[in-house]
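Recall the central idea of this unit: under ordinary conditions, the amino acid sequence of a chain determines the structure it adopts. In this exercise we apply that idea directly, starting from the sequence alone.
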Amino acid sequence: GITSYVWAESVNAMLVPLGGDLYFRGADGKNVQLTQTAEPELDPKLCKQGEKAVFVRGRELYAIDVGSKREVALTKGAPEGVTRGQSDFNGQEEFDEASGYWISPGCDKVAYLEVDERAVGEHPVLGYRGKKADLMEQRYPAAGARNPVVKIGILDVASKKTVWVAVPGGKEHYTGRFAWAPDGSALFFQALDRDQKRMTLYRADSRVGVATELASETSPGWVDFAEVRMLEKTGALVWTAARGGHIHLETRDTQTGKIVAQLTQGAWDVTSIDAVDEAQGFVYFTATKESPVERQLYRVALKGGEPVKITSERGVHTTRVSPRAGSYVDIHSARDRAPQAAVRDLT
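Accordingly, the structure predicted from this sequence is:
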């Protein structure tokens, strides 16, 4: 059956994986089958305007034109043990980095990961498959052992040429939280040292792949990736950072990395950025401001100020916010109350 779907960002169109193939549902309500292959299409995504779909098949990246159904291989020649467009085991399992590629806003470039697992140790996995006992050798990056080698590529869709991003420093690291500049001129990402005591935010030029350090967070204990949202109008980004022992919101200039505004502060933590409404000048976020065991939805002005609480019931709220629709989906529960779902006005 249908277990997932992907909306186009700017048009009323949807991509639906089903039975290992892809189906497109346009604004006219018609369903069109785009692929019919023996291998499944993995992690499919639509361009903002819905004109192309990008996906992983086997070890490579592909794109298909929705109107003509013309399919092209974006990458070729990955040897056994190397994948393009898929996140590595550490990214998926430990850092919530489920995807391994990101389409630029103009759909003319694709940033992707090339993952080389050939030096990662193999571990036997016993199982029962095909009605008989089975032994599978699984490459697994055990703690303290060899990790996959992960490279960041920026691919030009028209020429199929890839520019490799040069990450400064030369230390072993993890990469994550990729985001495109609104005009596609740069790719933003974070690199986390393997000992997790330093996290660096980089800006990579999408034409030549040169990465420049914008900001860093350090800790004698450990530090994690930050949440990031790009701002289209101001040339800044919103991200989470540890300030005074707690996680808070701040905006930074995307060219210099300098702090533009400290949005929140206090003896409580921001647990997620839920939406950014540049038109009205707000950031919606979930935090522990009421209590460490509660999660409530708030908004704060992009210029900073006192947060305004949106949700009302005590307990834990998990939300999906749509500023354009002026509403949010709220799944909320408490110790003495089973989860309930509601669609609410943002006021």
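The longest strand covers residues 337-345.
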